[in-house]
Amino acid sequence: MFATTELRISSYAPRGTMAPHQHHEALMSIVVHGDFREWIGKRERDYARGHAAFFPAGLTHSQEFGAAGARQIIFKPCESWLDYLTDSKARLGDAPHVSSEVFRYLGDRLLEEMQHRDALSAVACEGLLLETIAAFGRHWTATRTDAKAPAWLRAARDFIHENAFNGPSLAQIARAAARHEIHVAREFRRFFGLSVGTYMRRLRTERAALLLLEEQSSICEIAQSCGFASHPHLCREFKAHFGVTPSQYRSRATRDATTWGTP
C-alpha cells in the first residue's frame, strides 16, 4: 500500500493475552486505543494511548490487554530511519519506548488517512511516519539528557512543570534553582534543546490537548486554565505544535473515538 514502508492496524480483545513471541524484523508501533501490560524478559511495562515503541527483531515479549482491549498502528521503519534513531542515542536493542501527546495526534492522523484513503494518502502517511520518527528521537534524547543534567537544572525544570500554568518568570525559576537567570537560560537551552519560554509553551499546549479530549470545558476555559492569555493565543500555539486548531483536534478525536472505540 505504501511505497517505502509497511503499515497496518492491529486490534486486541479486552482482557486478552498474547503468549511470548518474537518478530523476525524490527517494528515500531503507536498505541491509538486502550492499554496493555508487556513483559520483556524480567522487565514489565505499561502502555496506553500516546505511547510509541520500537522492537528489535528476535526479542521475546508477551502482553496482557486491559478492559478496553487495545489497538496499535504498527510499521516497519526504513533503514535510514533507524540510522536517525541510532544517531539520537536511542539504544534500539533495549526496545525503547516514549509517551507524549504528540503521538496521540500522529496516531489519530494516521488512522484518518488509513480510513479515508485517496490518491495522496500514501504521501500523507509517509510524512506522518517521518514526524513520528523525529518525535521519537527527540523525546528519547530528552529522556537521556535528563539523567546528565546537573541537579540544580533538574530542579529548575521541575519548578517549571509545577508552575507552568501560572506563568512563572525567569527570575522565579532562577531563584528556585539558586542560579543566575542568564546561567539558567543558557544551560537550559544547552541541555534540553529549547528555551525556557518555548518549553513552558509546549507543556501548556500538550496539557490543553489532553483537556480537549478529557473534559467538556470550552476552549476559552481550557486556554485560561493552561495559562494562555486568550483563546486566539492558544489557537496559535496549538496549530504551530499540532498542525490543527483546538476545535479541529477535538472534533477529529471525537469522530475517531466513535469510529474506532469498539475493539
Short description:
This protein is of the alpha+beta class and 263 residues long.
Structural commentary:
With 263 residues, this protein is of the alpha+beta class. It is built from ten helices and seven strands. Strands 1, 2, 3, 4, 5, 6 and 7 form a seven-stranded antiparallel β-sheet that branches. A hairpin with a 2-residue loop joins strand 3 and strand 4. The longest helix has 28 residues, at 121-148. It is globular, with a radius of gyration of 20 Å.
Q: Which structural category fits the helices and strands?
A: alpha+beta
Unreliable segments of 5+ consecutive residues? 258-263
Structural domain count? 2
Supply Rg: 20 Å
- The CATH architecture designation of the largest domain is Sandwich
> What is the string of SSEs from the N terminus onward?
EEEEEEHEHHHHHHHHH
Helix content: 40-55%
**Which CATH class of the largest domain?**
Mainly Beta
